[in-house]
Amino acid sequence: MSAPDIECHLFPAAELLPAGWRSAAETGPIRTFNPALLRDGTGWILAYRVVLIDGRRRIAICRLDANLRVIAGTPFPLSDLVRFSDVAPYPEIARQWLADPRL
Length: 103
Hints:
By secondary structure, this protein is α+β, with helices and mostly antiparallel strands. The chain has three helices and three strands, in the order H-H-E-E-E-H. It has a three-stranded antiparallel β-sheet, with no helix packed on it. A hairpin with a 5-residue loop joins strand 2 (43-51) and strand 3 (57-64).
């Protein structure tokens, strides 16, 4: 039995970075990983973890075209919208450390 053809697709990290996070990325590396992928009509939605020089774990989301290319202008800083109730019993690290998105 032969192995199936597997295609590897690498995204330039800068293409995945939401505009609001670009200034933080100027001073150090951009790490993007642990993606989640969901088909949406003729394209895709991609959610992924972003870690910048400050070490914070962030979640971004963007749209991909049918050929898995990032659609310009779609990277969005999803984790910037995540808020926890002040009465929620989460430790402070859990309020700041967002990882491994699922769609």
